[in-house]
């Protein structure tokens, strides 16, 4: 009797109860753990194969919203949306709590360093400032990110990744292998490495690209030049370098604005005025 | 005073009937049961998920809860029903409260910190801000200024013995601290005299000596001798048992700097130029007649805020205008408060935030992130969204880099519209010697620094 109680007590705690779906209150700790896992995942997104990514997606939706309603899915011809919806639907009547637990379990397999308890159980009284996650276009209602038009090749992926961390050596190697990569455009915003480097403030990369003959007047989808980016991001040093390399101060973007028009820093604006 | 956690004799009548059915065993119970089963010849390893050989973390968890299992706090797994809202242990008669301080490891002694003494204030500042562990991978540390500490710890009715320090005998260095300040708090329908516990800090040289529990016991004793038996506190760690788990949200005011110091990151789909544009704020606030609060506004703000706080399940109760004045009358680099006054001279709205910068570890260009934290507000004549957006504008004007808020009060509703992003940090709210039903963050109206 006693043992039976003990075992059943334990199975209640650990077992899954999938038979019927009902809105059980979610354990606060589990929710905290799940939140920690969900904010950890983006760092691993690039390493995920498609199947695993979809599984995470499905569990996330299940954990946040509960079971999917098969009648409310996107149309079959909306292929991408439908695939994602099916991943959600595949979880059936799984409870939100179970979905959270599974999500955490999957993350701890994926990321050996992630200690699900450590996130919520830091055994120190020191308060550590919270930090912000990744800034995604989805955070802004007034901005919709364009869909990728084409996918980057593997070497283009490495090219842009190296640009972001100022890894000029790798960029040099990739450029030697394929000179066309110099003006390659990224899959998200169709920008060349020079445009990105000007935007992100990767000074060594800008110098490297100019030295190797990159087009200093290349434009993105909104006709913005590298000089437009330095203007908006207040990067006087890069603006100087670009101007000396022949960047056009009178270039107009899609809104008809010159780099100087886009700049709200008085000193830099003067430098940019044609 | 020894706090043995016992349900018998605890003034919690509404709770006992359900225990046998719904109570989940705590880790100690579980270990005891496993031992009993083993003694009875049961192969415990065949039972599902029984921690026969606890992993390190499990062990650490059990170990650290060994302390909390002696304290009047709800069990980690306890679900407190909605009709329970009461002390866990009855008040101890004052002549029964332990009179002598708890003992410290040899070589250390208790020492009150006098915040009016510039040297001691500076020692506390150094303990709290410079005392980071080198192998800690966190890139940011709170940088509590001396003025901030005085504001947070020298509230009306403060006591020097509640600024409780530990010094080494050998060199007289301040090596640990715990602070308490008086604060009346309403929990659901009960108003309780409490203290807020804050700034618990143990120097890294003392970490292995398990001093934190002694600090907690000692501050409890020093509070108990004044006839106060409840406390409220917040922490990043999870211990038995949070009354609510809140989460930080962040609104970039200076996105370029935040990205440069890696406080936030850009996705591959976002340019810096676009990010700067999206976070750009208007120069002027939208609420008419919004101006800095002054001392003369205190009587009106007292009424306005007192009334507004009634909507929350956990909220401070300001017992007099002096307490409110201390909390809200602006202090440069510490607390910023603004009020909107209508044409009849009536104050209709209040918005406030406090300043708590973070030190940036190992960055060549930036040493400090200037962070504003949303404090108390009352949206009377305008929407919460407009009022908080005005706070963003005002904070930006004061050169803050980021505006932080927890998802408590009505904050959750405005985060998406005002472009707040979810943070990676939780903040747990705790009550000591009190049990009540869990609260959603939106029920919390108490902001602790």
TrEMBL record, chain A:
KW Repeat (keyword) present: yes
Pfam families xref list: ACBP, Ank_2
InterPro entries assigned: Acyl-CoA-binding_protein, Acyl-CoA-binding_sf, Ankyrin_rpt, Ankyrin_rpt-contain_sf, FERM/acyl-CoA-bd_prot_sf
ANK repeat ranges per the UniProt record: 189-221
Keywords in alphabetical order: ANK repeat, Lipid-binding, Repeat
Keyword Lipoprotein attached: no
MF-aspect GO terms: fatty-acyl-CoA binding
Superkingdom, natural source: Eukaryota
Annotated ranges, domain ACB: 30-116
The protein's name in its UniProt record: Acyl-CoA-binding domain-containing protein 6
Species for this entry: Caenorhabditis remanei (Caenorhabditis vulgaris)
UniProtKB/TrEMBL annotation, chain B:
Alphabetical list of SUPFAM superfamilies matching this protein: Acyl-CoA N-acyltransferases (Nat)
Any GO CC annotation of this UniProt entry: cytoplasm
GO molecular function, one term: glycylpeptide N-tetradecanoyltransferase activity
Gene3D superfamilies listed in its UniProt record: 3.40.630.170
EC numbers for this chain: 2.3.1.97
UniProt enzyme class: transferase
One of the Pfam families matching this protein, by short name: NMT
Superkingdom of source: Eukaryota
Occurrences of domain Glycylpeptide N-tetradecanoyltransferase N-terminal (ranges): 88-246
Catalysed reaction equations from the record: N-terminal glycyl-[protein] + tetradecanoyl-CoA = N-tetradecanoylglycyl-[protein] + CoA + H(+)
Residue span(s) of domain Glycylpeptide N-tetradecanoyltransferase C-terminal: 260-443
Keyword Acyltransferase listed: yes
Keywords linked to the UniProt accession: Acyltransferase, Transferase
Family: Belongs to the NMT family.
Its job: Adds a myristoyl group to the N-terminal glycine residue of certain cellular proteins.
Protein name: Glycylpeptide N-tetradecanoyltransferase
Originating organism: Caenorhabditis remanei
Organism classification: Eukaryota, Metazoa, Ecdysozoa, Nematoda, Chromadorea
């Amino acid at each position: 009797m006693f043992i039976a109680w003990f075992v059943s007590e334990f199975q209640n705690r650990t077992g899954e109860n999938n038979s019927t779906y009902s809105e059980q209150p979610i354990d606060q700790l589990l929710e905290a753990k799940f939140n920690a896992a969900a904010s950890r995942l983006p760092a691993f997104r690039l390493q995920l194969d498609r199947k695993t990514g979809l599984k995470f997606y499905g569990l996330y939706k299940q954990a946040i919203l509960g079971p999917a309603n098969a009648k409310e899915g996107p149309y079959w011809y909306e292929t991408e949306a439908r695939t994602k919806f099916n991943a959600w639907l595949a979880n059936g009547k799984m409870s939100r709590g179970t979905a959270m637990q599974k999500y955490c379990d999957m993350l701890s397999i994926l990321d050996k360093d992630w200690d699900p308890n450590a996130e919520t159980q830091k055994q120190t009284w020191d308060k550590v400032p919270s930090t912000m996650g990744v800034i995604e276009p989805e955070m802004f209602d007034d901005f919709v990110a364009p869909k990728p038009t084409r996918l980057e090749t593997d070497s283009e992926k490495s090219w842009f990744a190296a640009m972001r961390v100022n890894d000029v050596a790798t960029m040099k190697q990739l450029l030697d292998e394929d000179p066309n990569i110099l003006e390659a455009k990224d899959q998200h915003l169709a920008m060349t490495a020079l445009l990105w480097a000007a935007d992100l403030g990767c000074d060594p990369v800008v110098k490297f690209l100019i030295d190797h003959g990159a087009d200093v007047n290349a434009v993105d989808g909104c006709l913005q030049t590298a000089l437009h980016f330095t203007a908006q991001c207040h990067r006087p040093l890069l603006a100087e370098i670009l101007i000396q390399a022949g960047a056009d101060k009178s270039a107009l973007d899609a809104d008809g604005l010159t780099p100087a028009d886009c700049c709200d820093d008085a000193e830099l604006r003067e430098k940019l005025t044609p | 005073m020894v706090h043995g956690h016992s349900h018998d004799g605890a003034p919690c009548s509404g709770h006992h009937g359900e225990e046998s059915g719904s109570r989940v065993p705590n880790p100690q119970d579980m270990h005891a049961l496993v031992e009993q089963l083993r003694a009875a010849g049961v192969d415990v390893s065949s039972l599902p998920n029984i921690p026969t050989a606890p992993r390190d973390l499990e062990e650490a968890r059990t170990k650290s809860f060994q302390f909390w299992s002696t304290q009047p706090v709800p069990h980690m797994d306890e679900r407190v029903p909605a009709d329970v809202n009461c002390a866990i242990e009855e008040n101890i008669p004052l002549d029964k409260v332990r009179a002598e301080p708890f003992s410290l490891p040899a070589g250390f002694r208790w020492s009150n910190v006098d915040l009016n003494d510039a040297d001691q204030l500076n020692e506390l500042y150094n303990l709290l801000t410079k005392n980071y562990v080198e192998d800690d991978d966190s890139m940011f540390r709170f940088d509590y200024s001396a003025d901030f500490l005085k504001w947070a710890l020298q509230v009306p009715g403060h006591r020097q013995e509640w600024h409780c320090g530990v010094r080494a005998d050998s060199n007289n260095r301040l090596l640990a601290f715990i602070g308490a300040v008086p604060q009346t708090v309403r929990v659901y329908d009960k108003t309780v005299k409490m203290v807020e516990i804050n700034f618990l800090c143990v120097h890294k040289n003392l970490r292995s000596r398990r001093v934190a529990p002694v600090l907690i016991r000692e501050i409890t004793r020093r509070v108990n001798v004044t006839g106060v038996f409840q406390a409220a506190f917040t922490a990043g760690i999870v211990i038995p048992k949070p009354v609510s788990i809140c989460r930080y949200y962040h609104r970039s005011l200076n996105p370029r700097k935040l990205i440069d110091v890696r406080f936030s990151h850009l996705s591959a789909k976002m340019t810096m130029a676009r990010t700067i544009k999206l976070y750009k704020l208007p120069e002027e606030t939208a609420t008419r007649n919004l101006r800095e609060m002054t001392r003369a506004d205190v009587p009106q703000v007292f009424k306005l805020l007192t009334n507004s706080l009634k909507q929350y399940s956990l909220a401070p109760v300001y017992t007099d205008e002096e307490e409110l004045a201390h909390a809200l009358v602006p202090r440069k680099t510490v607390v910023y408060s603004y009020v909107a006054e209508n044409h009849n001279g009536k104050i209709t709205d209040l918005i406030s935030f406090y300043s708590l910068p973070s030190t940036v570890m190992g960055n060549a260009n930036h040493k400090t992130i200037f962070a504003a934290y949303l404090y108390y507000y009352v949206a009377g004549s305008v929407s919460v969204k407009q009022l908080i957006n005005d706070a963003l504008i005002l904070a930006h004007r004061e050169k803050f880099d980021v505006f932080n808020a927890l998802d408590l009060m009505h904050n959750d509703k405005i985060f998406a519209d005002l472009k707040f992003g979810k943070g990676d940090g939780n903040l747990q709210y705790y009550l000591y010697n009190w049990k009540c039903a869990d609260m959603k963050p939106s029920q919390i109206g108490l902001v602790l620094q």
